[in-house]
Specification:
mainly alpha; 6 helices
């Protein structure tokens, strides 16, 4: 197991780098055809986008490795894993942190302690990621 970062900035860099390893969403979101029976004329989602959007976060490839290890990590934090308590608030914060480009100030929930909350959430994420088998164990 690698050593954890020592600072909040180090944890944020580590966290955002893990997301860089995740597969990107498909570029094309919609088909050219209209959804059958849709009165508004909405275009149908491509199968690739629908699969990306609704896919199980713990899906594995043929070798048994998680296709999206960070999503699997957030899923485990959200629901709990093994004997660990669920932390849906931490998982939601970490998702916001990713969406905010790693800016922990923008992602911080109101009245949650800012820097201390961000560091605590990232430490939990690092520990879950580091100890969570990147291969699904049957």
């Amino acid at each position: 197991m690698t050593k954890p970062p020592r600072t909040l900035a180090g944890f944020v860099r580590w966290y955002m780098a893990r997301w860089e390893d995740e597969p990107d969403p498909p570029i094309r979101l919609h088909e050219q055809s209209v959804q059958p029976g849709d009165m508004l004329g909405s275009k149908r989602w491509t199968m690739a986008f629908l699969r990306w959007l609704t896919d199980n976060p713990r899906r594995t490839d043929d070798g048994g490795y998680f296709v999206r290890p960070m999503r699997a990590t957030l899923h485990a934090l959200h629901l709990g894993h093994g004997d660990q308590e669920p932390h849906p608030d931490v998982a939601a914060y970490l998702w916001r942190l990713y969406q905010c480009g790693g800016d922990w100030r923008k992602a911080a929930p109101p009245n949650m302690g800012g820097e201390a909350y961000a560091l605590g959430a990232l430490v939990m994420c690092w520990w879950q990621y580091a100890t969570f088998p990147m291969r699904r164990v049957a």
